[in-house]
Amino acid sequence: MSNVTADVGVVIVAAGSGSRTGSEELKQFRWVAGKPMLLHTVQLFQQRADVCMVVAVLPKRYAGDPPPWLFQSDIERLLIGVGGTQRGSSVRSGLDDLPTTARIVVIHDAARPFILDETVDAVIAAARKGTGAIAALPLTDTLKRVDEDGHVLGTTERSGLWRAQTPQAFPRDMIDDVTRRANREGVTATDDAALCEHYGYPVVVIPGSERAMKITSEDDFARAEVMSMLTR
Fold it and tell me: What is the pLDDT of residue 21?
């Protein structure tokens, strides 16, 4: 591993309010499977020899005084970014903090603490070929379109539909271009790959994992604890 070039920058988006958990504590700071959620991914990415820097983007009120457990990591490869009011501004803030040596960028949601090393390997490998890459899972459930009153309007064909996850990886030039253009033009998206799609850049899907579930509710925390015990 000594010959590995450290040219991957990681932006962990942890600037959300976490209001859907119903707790006053930020969900990305809550403990799950033995440690705070955010710390799981900071440590995972810093175990990689190809990572030159991890930027954890926090809400503004925490960025100046982050929780002390966050420094249970390689502080030489950790920066704290200041989040914005929307995901796009938080990602852009994290990108601005990355060193110029980061030629590949991985963007990850702090609410997905249990990603697999092989998924990270695969999205980075795809980005090195010049394309955006996202972890995702094919849809297996039947999809229904429903009106505001709960009446079913129709069934949507699920063939070719995938559930997007993170990590998502991009060549630095690509993600810099689309985020700057989106900022100028007021374009928003729920994930970073959507901006690449919007501006005509190629994006490929890498099979993700059910382990990479997004924790958004109290029920999710309970499921995550059970899953972590079953997969140890």
Answer: 45
Q: Give me the helices (H) in 159-199, please.
A: 172-185, 192-198
β-pair type (35-36, 31-32) = antiparallel
d(CA 133, CA 126): 6
**Using CA atoms, how far apart are residues 198 and 25, in angstroms rounded to an integer?**
35
Domains of the chain plus CATH, in order, are 8-230 (3.90.550.10)
**CA 144 – CA 121 distance, rounded (Å):** 35
Residues in the chain with pLDDT < 50?
Answer: 1, 19-22
Please give the distance of CA 174 from its chain centroid, rounded to a whole number.
17
CB within 8 A of 220, min separation 6: which ones?
213, 214
